[in-house]
Design goal:
Chain lengths: ~325, ~525
């Protein structure tokens, strides 16, 4: 088991390293953004680029890049945006917005999704199940930005319940009511997808488990239906559901680019889009590494968690 | 002697053999054999929701390819005056699809909108919904239903000599008044409107008995008095075409209305925009889905964007199909070290976030091969992995089976084994996977172009994501701009989801007879 985990982690690091290398080289091959804005001293920018090693060969730059990260935790400084400020520091500043919005959303979505899923599975092939399944089918297919537009139009414009933008940090604390309320439209828009995904998954898993013969045995033994469902069926159905929830939790770090853009949340996704549009390669590189890492870690944790949750699953054996 | 005792008493002349000389063989099957695809088709047809979804997808495809051919408009078409007009469909106007919108106006606003229609003899205010006085200020508030196409009313335009005379002969030939007289300067409290519409003066000679000015009749309707610029002679510009009824053209010593003023470049005239639009384009403006803030027809833009998305998605899925099948077959068939190395490569590619791929391709290639091709490459770079892993699994399942071994013993080549013997078994799942790439590509493309990461917008091209971004800016005031693209993509995704479910079940022979 431990050997398998270590093997997987090493493989992950290798994959991460390869992707980072490719991205770094591809980014460095791009022409640097022109220095044309007013009020920027061309000489100064050129000197700064020289000092940051932009004129060295790409491989030398790459070695320096890792050296700075590993020894000083330095991801470079902003060039086109947040000029002169540390990339890592800005990212850490932006992170809480993304995390808080997504945290609210999945904290609300997980219980709802599981509840709907269990209910639909218990009422399988009855009208309740059909209603829930149809709704899930619709909600899972419709793109998340469509909900975002609907929420924005009806809740923010038509009824005027919420403000359009998220409260700034100066106005309110991250876990205050004001902040929560200003984030609510985004939370709702994010929640639709999670709830419907989880409902479908839970329903499918539980419905399959419920047909198992050991459940019949449990009932024959004299357990009530609810006892049989809660103690036997649900526990088994949770085996694939928990890893899914776990990966949702890792996913909250990354957030959703489009939702952050629509609701103008100053989070990490908005930072990424800005970095792309303004061609700030240091930010772009750091954020690319960040997103790649989240994806890799999410996948790895999901895979490994099966083995920890269900002792019957032996990892790494054929 | 072995005689059958049972037949001993049959007389010889009565004995007849039932079939003499016939060979008794199995009867040929009278039913037609059911092949793999026919069987899948039959099962697919049983699934009603999937069939409906397939029909909807076909309709959307038809929409995307037929509308640009039959529409009056295209993406290039931009009208500077009919911006953000509402959806209008003459045949369905009773459903509220009439291009009208209820708006609140004060007295002068009400006068203004009434006056537009008054001048050309149609009613631009379709309906007075409600009239009440505001509780706080006591001012009269009108809720009026205004046709968004009539809001423009009149415009000032500078025509070239040629166009000016052409328009005059058009007027004379068709008996349609397009050029209206110029109004005199007139100050009104109603600001921020198109000045060309202020042709009137409220008739202050309609005095009440007590001598007060009376601008409105007893029902509150404004009494208009034309306030046109007049001149005794035709000093401004030569005008020989239709005149308004009350302009008797200088006879009995009266003044002429001034229809045009000559300036350096040509003629400055005041035009009834609806008719002028028809003069220019040959038809009246009706936009089935309305227009956006650039004056583009949403219907045509949507069809053009959808066509681009479909073409992109279909080519991506075809290319991915080919790459995925070849890659997966080689992986699965040869196994061992080949498999290990190839699997590592696809693992690494699959771990790169798609946004990063799209951005890097866009930055590197868009200037060389154009944004559409670079996006296509980005989709292809990682899109085939899913299909390849499906194919690989299928190969692991089938390659050890006896019929494959038999074929190999008979001397079949690797290529023949792969493509004739093993691959057809897994065709069903591969086809399902390939088709389900299409909605994914359309969705990703719309997100990327919405975020502005890639820009597919040119003068004659648009994409659904760009339309969504356009609409989002006007979400509060003109929700129709975003409604149609959002509706289109929602319908498309739902249909593909249902269609995909049906396909998956249909190509799964283990479900054969499950519901019967």
């Amino acid at each position: 088991m431990l050997k398998y985990v270590i093997k997987r982690i090493l493989l992950m690091i290798m994959t991460f390293f390869v992707i980072t290398t490719m991205c770094f080289i591809l980014i460095k091959m791009l022409p640097l953004p022109a220095i044309k804005e007013m009020g920027r001293d061309v000489q100064l920018v050129l000197e700064r680029r020289e000092a940051m090693g932009y004129n060295k060969p790409i491989l030398v730059q790459y070695a320096l890049f890792w050296k700075h990260i590993l020894f000083y935790g330095d991801f470079g400084i902003g060039e086109q945006m947040y000029t002169g400020q540390e990339v890592a520091k800005i990212m850490l500043q932006k992170m809480p917005y993304t995390v808080v919005v997504n945290l609210y959303s999945i904290l609300a979505a997980i219980p709802l999704g599981i509840m709907f899923g269990i209910y639909a599975a218990l009422k399988k092939n009855k009208w309740q199940d059909h209603v829930i399944s149809t709704a899930v089918m619709v909600f899972i297919s419709v793109p998340s930005y469509v909900y975002a537009f609907l929420v924005q139009y009806f809740l923010c414009f038509k009824f005027g319940w919420f403000s359009l933008t998220v409260a700034s940090r100066a106005e309110a604390d991250f876990f205050s009511w004001t902040m929560f309320k200003s984030m609510l439209p985004a939370v709702i828009a994010l929640g639709f997808g999670t709830v419907s995904g989880l409902t479908r998954f839970t329903r499918a898993e539980l419905a399959e488990v419920l047909t198992g013969e050991y459940l019949l045995l449990a009932r024959t033994k004299g357990l009530t239906r609810s006892q049989a469902v809660v103690r036997h069926a649900l526990r088994n159905a949770m085996v694939p559901i928990l890893p899914m929830i776990l990966s949702e939790f890792i996913g909250i770090l990354g957030g959703s680019l489009i939702i952050e853009k629509i609701f103008s949340i100053p989070g990490i996704g908005a930072l990424y889009i800005n970095a792309i549009n303004l061609r700030d390669y240091n930010f772009f590189m750091a954020l690319t590494m960040f997103y790649t890492l989240i994806g890799l870690v999410g996948g790895l944790v999901t895979d490994l968690s099966y083995g920890f949750i269900d002792p019957r699953i032996k990892m790494g054996e054929r | 002697m072995s005689e059958n005792p049972m037949n001993m008493n049959i007389p010889a002349d009565k004995l007849k053999l039932a079939r003499r000389g016939d060979k008794i063989t199995d009867k040929k099957l009278e039913t037609k054999p059911v092949g793999y695809f026919r069987d899948a088709m039959r099962r697919f047809r049983k699934n009603k929701s999937s069939v409906v979804a397939a029909i909807i997808i076909l309709c959307l495809l038809l929409f995307a390819f037929v509308v640009p051919m039959i529409s009056h408009y295209n993406v290039d078409f931009r009208d500077g005056y009919y911006k953000t007009v509402l959806p209008k469909c003459e045949a369905l106007s009773f459903l509220g699809w009439d291009g009208c919108k209820v708006q609140k106006e004060g007295q002068s606003g009400f006068d203004y909108y009434t006056s537009i229609g008054y001048e050309f003899g149609e009613s631009s205010v379709k309906e007075l919904v409600k009239k009440y006085s505001d509780k706080n200020t006591g001012r009269l508030i009108y809720e009026i239903d205004v046709d968004s196409y009539d809001r423009v009313g009149f415009i000032y335009a500078d025509l070239s000599d040629e166009e000016y005379f052409e328009l005059q002969s058009y007027q004379t030939d068709n008996n349609i008044q397009v050029i209206y007289p110029m109004p005199d300067n007139y100050k009104t409290q109603f600001v921020a409107v198109n000045g060309a519409n202020l042709w009137y003066q409220l008739a202050d000679e309609n005095k009440t008995s007590s001598g007060e000015s009376k601008f409105h009749d007893d029902d509150g309707n404004p009494i208009f008095k034309p306030n046109y610029k007049t001149s005794k002679k035709q000093v401004y510009a030569k005008y020989t075409s239709l005149r308004l009824a009350d302009d008797n053209g200088g006879e009995d010593g009266q003044s002429w209305y001034v229809y045009a003023i000559k300036n350096q470049t040509g003629y400055r005239v005041r035009l009834h925009y609806k008719e002028y639009y028809r003069f220019k384009n040959g038809f009246y403006a009706t936009h089935l889905f309305g227009t956006n803030q650039h004056g583009q027809d949403i219907l045509s833009c949507l069809a053009a964007g959808a066509r681009l998305s479909f073409l992109l998605a279909i080519s991506v899925s075809l290319i991915n199909f080919i790459i995925g099948v070849v890659y997966g077959s080689v992986e699965g068939y040869y196994g061992g070290a080949t498999d290990l190395i190839m699997e590592r490569i696809s693992d690494i590619l699959a771990s790169v976030p798609f946004t990063v791929v799209a951005i890097l391709f866009n930055l590197h290639l868009a200037s060389k091969v154009g944004p559409i091709l670079s996006l296509l490459f980005a989709f292809v770079l990682t899109g085939w992995i899913g299909i390849a892993s499906r194919v690989r699994t299928q190969f692991y399942r089938f390659k050890g089976q006896e019929y494959v071994l038999a074929a190999r013993t008979l001397g079949a080549s690797d290529r023949r084994l792969i493509f004739r013997h093993i691959l057809p078994n897994s065709l069903g799942t591969i086809i399902t996977g390939t088709i389900l790439i299409i909605p994914g590509v359309i969705f990703s493309e719309s997100i990327l172009s919405y975020l502005g990461i890639i820009n597919l917008q040119t003068s004659s091209l648009t994409s659904i994501g760009t339309m969504l971004a356009d609409g989002n800016a006007f979400l509060s005031s003109f929700p129709h701009i975003i409604m149609f693209p959002a509706l289109f993509i929602s319908l498309l995704e739902i249909s593909f989801n249902l269609f995909g479910n049906g396909l998956r079940d249909a190509f799964n022979p283990s479900l054969r007879g499950a519901d019967e």
